[in-house]
Structure formats: C-alpha cells, structure tokens
Amino acid sequence: MSEKTITTHVVGTGDDAITYDVHGDLAAATADRPALFLFAAPMDATGLALLAGQFTDRPVVTYDPRGAGRNPVGTADISVEQHAADLHRVIQALGAGAVDAFGSSGGAVNLLGLLAAHPDDVRIAVVHEPPLAEHLPDRDAVLAVIADMKRTYADQGDGAAMAKFIPFVMFDGQVPEDYLEQPAPDPAMFGMSAVDDGSRTNPLIRNMPALIQYHADLDALRGLGDRLVIAAGVESGDTLAARGARTLAAAVGRPVTEFPSHHAGFTDQPGYPGDPEGFADRLRTVLDGA
C-alpha cells in the first residue's frame, strides 16, 4: 500500500484556528470519488490515521476538533453549532466541492449539525454511533449523569470527572434512575490522579452536555434520503452511542448499517483492539453504494 503525502493546513485565526491534514492530492478527487473527510470529537486527527491509511483511491482529510489536538485550548463549553461551522470552514478551504464524510462519536453529532446547516457540503454522510440522548427512553437519567459529571469536573477536576465518564460510556443497557446513588469510582482505577491540578481545558468535558442533548433536525435528515447512513458497531451492544444511533435511525426512518467491531473499531489500541481493515472495507462499500 503506497503512502500518501500529508500536508498540514490551518483555517481561521486566534481561538478559531482549526488544524487539518490532507492525505494525498485534492486534485485527484472526482464526482464518484470525492475527498473523504474523517473525523471524531474530541478525538483528534491522530485517532483517524489508521483508517485514513486504508484509502488509496481518493484524497482523505482529517482534522483536530475545536479545543483538541493542535488547536488553541480554552475552558468554555463548545456547541455542536461551533463544531459544524468549523467543519464547513475546512470543507470550504479545501476547494474540492462536496466531500464524503465519516463522523464518529461526538464527530457524528457534529456531522448532524453540519448536515442541518450546510447539506450541500456532503455527498454521502456516515453517522457512526452518535451518543444522542434525545430519543432514548432513559433520556432524563442520561442527562442527569452528564450534569453530575459536569459538576464533578467543576468541583474536583479532570481525574474525578473522567473516572465517572469512562464506566458510564461503557455501561451496557438503559441507565437506571438510581445510577447516581452508587459510590463514585476512584480515578486510580483508571490510572488517573484524584488531585485537581486546576485546569479545565479537557475538550471532552467541554463538549458536554451539548453533544449528548443535541436535537437533530429530523426533517433535514429525512430529506437526505440514501445520502444519509446511520451506523453502529456489531460489538457495541447497548452502550449509549450505539443506542443513540439506533434511536436516531428509527426517528428518521432509516435502517441501521452495521460496521465491524466496536465504538472505536477503526483504531487498534492496546487492550482494546479494533478492526481498521474490516472497518475501512465496510466504509468503502457504503460509500460505493453497495
């Protein structure tokens, strides 16, 4: 597999500076093989590198979401609309026309925001496991857990908040009403310190609750027809993000497209192996309309 040349660019200035990478030559994009924009949130471009490397037939674009990676840091909450505007600015800066877009996790929610605001930016949109609470039967319980996590972050800092986040996103099934009555997990269980260093720049926490409580424009999504693909991993069970995908698909009246592996199946992390090759094959098939 030949390696592509990767060039790095920045669109915007100051707090609005967004860093993105172009893998290959944008001039090679065609109507049926447009540039492929791969993104997540708050995962930055490094997390999509394995998946990007699987596509040799078209240029690929990756980026660092606002507040993450090589971009300026901050402490204020970040909205889906801000992320969608950033995606639009990157696509406009490419100058290559409409892209095929794969958004995963928080990136999937941000892709929904882009589709609502700028549907012509995207030819085919693959929305992979958006952690949306809106259509869940346990919506109120989910949002209560997120609110508690935000309070923990404000009062105790990063370690204490992330110790609550990790088991929550791995929780399989509906969130019970008494979920918050259990003892708070010890950050040391996850190799983190309970000491508050005073920083409040964690992009994951900054993205909440906006990502989780986002209200998707269902009419706009229905209008996309077959251009919209809503996906979930075959190993994801009834975790929040997989349930978000299924309930969104039901609300829009679209089928759920199964992808290999789990929520991060396009990566291959120690102790959490994915299937980047199988994931790429499935994405390629979806984009080819098969």
Structural summary, described in words:
This protein has 290 residues and is an alpha/beta fold. The chain has 2 domains: 6-135 and 213-287, Rossmann fold; 139-206, no CATH class. 33% of the residues lie in helices and 16% in strands. It has helices at residues 49-52, 80-94, 106-117, 139-156, 158-170, 203-206, 218-222, 240-252, 276-287; strands at residues 6-11, 18-23, 36-41, 60-63, 99-105, 122-128, 228-233, 256-259. It has an 8-stranded mixed β-sheet, with helices on both faces. Helix 2 packs across helix 3 (106-117) and helix 4 (139-156) packs antiparallel against helix 5 (158-170). The model has no long low-confidence stretch (mean pLDDT 96).
Cα-based radius of gyration, to the nearest Å: 18 Å
Q: Shape from CA axes?
A: globular
Whole-number tally of structural domains: 2
Q: Remind me, CATH topology of the largest domain?
A: Rossmann fold
For the largest beta-sheet, the strand count, sense and barrel status come to: 8 strands, mixed
Count the E strands: 8
List unreliable stretches of 5+ residues.
Answer: none
**CATH H-tier superfamily of the largest domain:** Alpha/Beta hydrolase fold, catalytic domain
Distance between the termini: 23 Å
CATH class of the largest domain: Alpha Beta
Count of individual helical segments: 9
State mean pLDDT (0 to 100 scale): 96
Helical/strand content category = alpha/beta
Second rung of CATH, namely the architecture of the largest domain: 3-Layer(aba) Sandwich
**What is the percent of helical residues?**
25-40%
SSE order, one letter for each helix or strand:
EEEHEHEHEHHHHEHEH
Largest beta sheet: strand ordering: 1-2-4-3-5-6-7-8
What is the strand content? 15-25%
Domain AB hydrolase-1: 57-156
Protein name: Alpha/beta hydrolase
Organism: Microbacterium jejuense
GO molecular function: hydrolase activity
